[in-house]
Amino acid sequence: NERTLALQSLRDGRARICVATDVAARGIDLPSLDLVIHADLPNDPEVMQHRSGRTGRAGRKGVSVLLVPPVRRRRAEVLLNLSGIEANWGTAPQADEIRKLDHERMKDVLFTEDTSADDLELAKALLAERSAEDIAAALARLYRARLPSPEDIIDPGERSSSRRDERHRDDRTPRGDDRPERPRAKSGTSSKHVMGEPTVWFRAAIGRRKNAEARWLLPMICRRGGIDKRDIGAIKISDTTTEFEISERVAESFAAKVKRPDKEDSIRIELVTGAPQEQAPAEKRARAPQRDEGEDRQVVRRSDDPWKANGPKPHEGRIQA
């Protein structure tokens, strides 16, 4: 079956990576497997041990990596403690560290095997036409071409702590009745982004009446526009539409991508050509308009006797025999 074929591909080297659920991973026996990455935290210590046990089998050693966001660190520590595991905590490797390791791995690959006569003949032919530096540079390019490009990752712990510090500044002026409102942009571009960048407003054709919520709108916007959540500013959900800010830096490409048909949803997203719509609070919308104090009012009082309220009774004015 497919599972057997996949495991055989890993054993003979045709495949290097296996992505599996907890159920599919049960019973996997790969002695050469030396790295397990937990994409999310296990539900309990048993699952933790089961996942980690896929590596280091048959007396070998391996590495088990947990990807833990700051908000779930406490849960991860509890799982590790219940499992009897002492973990080494660290941040994700940065791009420079990855490049350095790539260079070391390239040396291991190039100089671990013996050189054949054909290899020497080809090397002499290349040296006759090019310098040794040009040949080495071309070899490095060929090696790097098959590797994914490393990226710098922002530490979420530092990011959240800086935001907390910003929110709790002592010199922040409290808003009062005499404090002027922040000026709004007259076009689709707002004054400033949350990170200090100019932004552009967009509108999605979905609102509260169709259960629109920011927790699923945010990943949908990122997927449709090919952007990161850091490029999204304020999100305002009204009854029938949702308006949100996009960093002006990526707004042009975002607008082009959201016009394409989407297989997962048919929510229309368009650029806001004017200022975002301001919607009155629910209390004000539900309240009836008030009359001026000096305006005449008609008061209709309800009588306890419905006949008196609606006219004379049917038998009044008649002579009974």
Features:
321 residues; alpha+beta; Rossmann fold; Alpha-Beta Plaits
Structure description:
- Strands 3, 4, 5, 6 and 7 form a 5-stranded antiparallel β-sheet that branches. Strands 1-2 form a two-stranded parallel ribbon.
- Strand 1, helix 3 and strand 2 form a beta-alpha-beta unit.
- The protein has 12 helices and 7 strands.
- Helix 3 packs across helix 4.
- By secondary structure, the protein is α+β, with helices and mostly antiparallel strands.
- Pfam families: DbpA, Helicase_C.
- GO terms for molecular function: ATP binding; hydrolase activity; RNA helicase activity.
- What is the mean pLDDT? 75
Number of discrete helical segments: 12
CATH hierarchy, class of the domain at 189-271: Alpha Beta
* β-strand number: 7
* Cα end-to-end separation: 102 Å
CATH superfamily of the domain at 189-271: RRM (RNA recognition motif) domain
Return the CATH topology of the domain at 189-271: Alpha-Beta Plaits
Domain Helicase C-terminal: 1-106
GO cellular component, one term: cytosol
InterPro entries: DbpA/CsdA_RNA-bd_dom, DEAD_box_RNA_helicase, Helicase_C-like, Nucleotide-bd_a/b_plait_sf, P-loop_NTPase
GO molecular function: ATP binding; hydrolase activity; RNA helicase activity
